[in-house]
């Protein structure tokens, strides 16, 4: 078996610019999908996490059902739902990018919601009482007292989830979005060098996710109360 | 019509789900998913126990090797591993191994390889955190009773750790089951593949995906209900502290 590693250097520009960043004729791009998906998924997750903890049953039951259903279904299924259902509903085809983004936000929101709920529950209940006793309303209590402490507790799980989401964006290639995986697939079909190509993007994915996890460890140390005092 | 406000025309025909050959496809899909999940799970747990334990032993080179395995394999998407094992890896194996795989369903065994190696790394993390949640004094007590490090791990540390990690390991096993859906991309006829196939043949996307979604929900909720019972049986009395929960 002889390898030809030059296939990497000759195609690196296409794979990294088009596949990773999303600059080029095909749109798409792993980062261009992952960054908005992480931000929007986080927002949906906060809403869901708070809804699950709400006192009123008509708020927390729908949130609980949503989270349990999404967590019982593979992401590919959710992507296919949007891919086939949205054109039927609105009567015209939707670009792969928007299908993938919607599916990711809906899917990851459920997982992030569970993390947020666990994080909020990790804050002692006395904090809520203290905030209420000081005359703060629900929004102020959550925004100024509970969430800042909760978010610090959940940084490790959150970053793990963001890493998972980043890896999950590779599934957008299944519906044909030009991301890192799809770019490598295209090149390896043309050059007939699958071993080298897939190993190369494995290293690219690894470099990004590994730096994310290092960053989270650094952040954890930096934000720990022992250091802040 | 339920979605009437969106003014779309879609004719539901649920009967496609019980018109042959569609039920057979779905059933075969369920069996393939289960077969892939079970075989993949066995290999992944073995890899997880080996590398998860190695990450905690007091020998630096072994620890470093195990860390390298875990950090590399779990930080790359499963889809990339699937493509790697299916398209890339066969060409580097010797001819007779390749022939065996080609005659025994290369798609299926590539999927097994990808799922085992990826989830093996994730199981290793679950098992490592289980082992690390056991006080170090247990290891010291084992060694001072005259056991070797290997014996201490085999007889004391791993049995306790395995009981501690039932909840996160269940979680991870369900992830494995759901992730086998990616094997459709290399042509393994599991549930998602069968669903897509029905959709292609009948153009009835909503019915087909409803069936697939319900099958996954039933499998996942069924397993987690059973495991909740197992968990309460296996829980170590007096211990509330649980091993760190692996995410997603």
What is the first-to-last residue Cα distance of chain A? 59 Å
Average of per-residue pLDDT values of chain A: 85
Q: Biggest β-sheet of chain A: count, sense, barrel? A: none
- The geometry of chain B reads as globular
Unreliable stretches of chain B, pLDDT < 50, 5 or more residues?
Answer: 240-248
Number of domains of chain B: 1
Give the structure's gist in a few sentences.
The complex is a heterodimer of chains A (229) and B (248). With 229 residues, chain A is mostly helical. Chain A has helices at residues 6-21, 30-52, 57-71, 75-90, 96-121, 125-133, 138-168, 180-191, 194-223, 225-228.
Please tell me about this protein's structure.
The complex is a heterodimer of chains A (229) and B (248). Chain A has 229 residues and is an all-alpha fold. Chain A contains 10 helices and no strands. Chain B has helices at residues 22-54, 60-74, 78-88, 95-103, 106-132, 136-144, 149-164, 166-179, 191-202, 205-234. In chain B, α1 (22-54) runs antiparallel to α9. Mean pLDDT of chain B is 84; it is low at 240-248. Chain A binds chain B through residues 1, 68-69, 71-77, 80-81, 84-85, 88-91, 111, 115, 157, 160-161, 163-164, 167-168, 170-171, 173-174, 181, 184-185, 188, 194-199, 201-202, 205-206, 209-210, 213, and chain B through 3, 6-8, 10, 71-72, 75-81, 83-84, 87-89, 91-92, 178-179, 181-182, 184-185, 192, 195-196, 199, 205-206, 209, 212-213, 216-217, 220-221, 247-248.
């Amino acid at each position: 078996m002889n390898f030809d590693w030059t296939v990497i250097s000759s195609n690196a520009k296409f794979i990294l610019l088009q596949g990773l960043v999303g600059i080029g004729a095909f749109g798409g791009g792993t980062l261009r999908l992952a960054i908005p998906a992480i931000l929007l998924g986080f927002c949906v997750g906060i809403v869901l996490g708070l809804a699950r903890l709400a006192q009123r049953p008509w708020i927390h039951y729908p949130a609980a059902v949503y989270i349990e259903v999404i967590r019982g279904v593979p992401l590919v299924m959710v992507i296919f739902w949007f891919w086939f259902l949205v054109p039927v509903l609105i009567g015209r085809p939707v670009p792969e990018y928007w299908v993938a983004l919607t599916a990711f936000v809906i899917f990851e929101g459920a997982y992030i919601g569970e993390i947020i709920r666990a994080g909020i529950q990790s804050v002692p209940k006395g904090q809520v009482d203290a905030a209420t006793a000081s005359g703060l309303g629900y929004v102020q209590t959550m925004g100024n007292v509970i969430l800042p402490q909760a978010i610090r507790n959940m940084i490790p799980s959150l970053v793990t989830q963001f890493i998972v989401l980043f890896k999950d964006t590779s599934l957008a290639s299944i519906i044909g979005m030009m991301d890192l995986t799809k770019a490598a697939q295209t090149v390896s079909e043309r050059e007939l060098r699958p071993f080298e190509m897939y190993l190369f993007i494995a290293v690219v994915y690894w470099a990004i996710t590994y730096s994310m996890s290092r960053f989270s460890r650094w952040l954890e140390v930096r934000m720990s109360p022992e250091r802040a005092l | 019509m339920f979605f009437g406000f969106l003014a779309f025309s879609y004719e539901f025909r649920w009967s496609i789900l019980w018109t042959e050959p569609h039920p057979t496809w779905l059933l075969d899909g369920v069996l393939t998913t289960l077969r892939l999940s079970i075989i993949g799970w066995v290999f992944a747990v073995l890899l997880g126990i080996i590398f998860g334990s190695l990450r905690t032993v007091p020998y630096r080179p072994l620890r470093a090797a195990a860390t390298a395995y875990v950090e590399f394999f779990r930080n790359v998407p499963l889809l990339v591993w699937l493509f790697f094992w299916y398209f890339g890896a066969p060409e580097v194996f010797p001819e007779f191994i390749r022939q065996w795989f080609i005659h025994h369903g290369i798609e299926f065994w590539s999927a097994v390889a990808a799922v085992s190696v990826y989830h093996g790394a994730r199981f290793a993390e679950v098992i490592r955190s289980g082992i690390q949640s056991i006080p170090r004094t247990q290891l010291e007590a084992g060694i001072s009773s005259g056991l070797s490090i290997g014996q201490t791990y085999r007889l004391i540390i791993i049995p306790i750790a395995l009981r501690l990690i039932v909840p996160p390991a269940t979680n991870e096993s369900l992830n494995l089951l759901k992730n086998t859906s990616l094997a459709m991309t290399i042509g393994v006829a599991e549930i998602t593949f069968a669903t897509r196939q029905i959709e292609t043949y009948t153009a009835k996307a909503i019915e087909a995906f409803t069936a697939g979604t319900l099958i996954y929900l039933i499998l996942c909720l069924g397993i987690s209900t059973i495991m909740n019972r197992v968990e309460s049986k296996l829980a170590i009395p007096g211990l509330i502290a649980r091993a760190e929960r692996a995410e997603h």
